[in-house]
Structures are given as structure tokens and as C-alpha cells.
Amino acid sequence: MDNRQAIGSWLSGPRAAIEGAGADLGYRGEQLGLPEDGPGSIARPGRRLGALAVDWGLCLLIAYGLITDGYGQATGNWALLIYFVLSVLTVGTVGFTPGKRLFGLRVVELGTGRPSPARALLRSVLLCLALPALIWDRDGRGLHDRVARTVEVRI
To answer: pLDDT tens digits, residue range 81-91?
Structure first.
């Protein structure tokens, strides 16, 4: 292997390198029994980040306007608490936050199709820790979703 191939495999990511070696990983969500695209398929990272940005913006607005009297560290802490409560209540009842609904996403439990309040609580705790959400599996699910046995899908 020359230097160009080595750099090219590094830039295209581990999935491309594994598939280039002859392994068939399938599409994201295939192991979970989800369709490749359309409703019910795994949500793409761009939509998920957009939904998170909308939810975080709403929580910051609430913290800034109703709880604190200026923007500072306390505003961010209150926004995180508001986000946690919003996530537990909305994901645990209807399966989505306002940002997820705006971007056409829903959180579903793998077995039942609807997350229980306990799973929503576990998922939200791990999501607020941030690190589990940054570790993804080959299906694109974060560690917080794997532990809670949930998946974020398109609706």
C-alpha cells in the first residue's frame, strides 16, 4: 500500500476501509430491522444535531428570560436542567422533543416502539453527560441510545 492509499483510507473513515477490504456492513439500521431510508429509518446526524440545536436554543431562551437576570454560567446550568426535564417529559410521553418534531424525528424503543418513562429518564441522563452521545456504533446510534435500548428514527 502506498502513501496515497493509506491517506485515502484514513480520510474516508473506518467504514470505507472495512468495506474496501471486502466486508459487507450493510446499511445503517439493518441489524435493528429498520428500513434503509424513509419513515422508520435511522435518523441522520445532521437532523439530530439540528433538533438538538433547536431544543437547546429553546431551553436557553427559557432560562435567560424566566429564571436568570443575565447571561452567564448560571444560565447555561439552568438551560441544561430545563433540557433534561423537557427531554424526560416529552420523550417519555410522546417520543419526541419540540426540535425532534420540527426535524421529523422520533425516539422509539426497540422492543415496543414507544420509549417508557424509565428509558427516557436513563437516555436523558446519559445525553446530558454528553460523552455517551459522542460515541456511536456502526448503526449511528449513540451510546446513550444503546444503553437505553432506543433508537432515533425519521417519521
So the answer is: 999 999 999 99
